[in-house]
Amino acid sequence: MNFIYFLTLALQAALVFALSTFLFDMVHYLLHRWQHSRFALLREFSRWHDVHHKFLDAEINVHPNWAKANLWCHLVPEFIVSILGTLLLVVFFDWIAVALVILVHTGLFVLRVRDEGKDVNHMNMDRLNGRRGHVFVTPTYHALHHVYPNQFFSSFLSLFDVIFGTNCQIKGQRFLVTGASGAYGQALTARLKKLGAIVDTAKFGEDYEIDKYDGLSEKMRKADILVLAHGSKSDDCWTANYTSFVDLIEKFRVIGKDRLTPPEIWAVGSEIELHGDMGIESLKPYATSKQAFAARAREFYTSPDLTYRHIVPAAFTSRMGKGLMSADVAAALSLFFIRRGFTYVPVTYTTLAVWNYIRFRFIPWPKSVRKAPIFNKSA
């Protein structure tokens, strides 16, 4: 009986802590929105929070001369909001669980005061990690909020950003898109522009050719995010779907190696990564090239030098053939998931892309999958 009670108490305390941080995240979001409020008091609260962004600036440098102001304008208000939010939960949870969480918040506050506001999430950083974290907020995740103050509001769990779609900066970001004349590329480009992105395109035969990418150097230097939406089902699938994808990613990685935020890549895969050619001879070149890239993409996905997103759509209507959804729906769903922090993006009505996540992340591909097949040699 005592064991069950203590287990229940521990679970309640964990839930209270998570909910109290979520309530703080809501206030955190409002502090940014209140910058332009018509009410002077709300604008003043927002200015207090702005002190915290001066303490840790957009270049992720800590400024000790702002430490005292950060204490009174950020740490103390943050502590008060956390305690009040936790106390509200006593209506729904055991008071002992609530008291334990208050002790945790108090301990964290004391440590932050002792360290003058510096902790694992508030320190000088020369380079952020491409792996931002998913469920829990990591130092890189919180640093991104200081780089992009209107995104990444979550403080402990990423729940707030997942719910409200504030997990990816799009407005003002510079995108370089391949395959922008295709159905998906056109739809995605249009939606990115509506969200305030600055979009440029990379055209095969004009800006680059296979093994000749120097013409893209300047565009890549200006780009924050590279979107690879080109591809082929017929003409030299291997070159279009594997070689060019890998070469462009590696070039963008080198160009962005000294940036504070690692280069970000969105690459369009396919559900054929999972089900293969299904014995259909005409699909073999396409399936082979897509599976080969998926095998290589696992390395990009786990690299700290990149933020890599693998987009896996089910068939959509395009020049390649008919699908049960339009390219615009596929683009809309892609952005829905990306804005919520997904790095593996399942755009599916078949559920195959969901199952493919297991294949993509956890089942090693044979090394032979990356070798160009003979039937492509003469293409």
From TrEMBL:
One of its GO terms (molecular function) is iron ion binding. It holds the Pfam family FA_hydroxylase. The chain crosses the membrane at residues 79-104. InterPro entries: Fatty_acid_hydroxylase (IPR006694), NAD(P)-bd_dom_sf (IPR036291). One of its GO terms (biological process) is lipid biosynthetic process. Keywords: Membrane, Transmembrane, Transmembrane helix. Residues 18-166 form the Fatty acid hydroxylase domain. This is Fatty acid hydroxylase domain-containing protein.
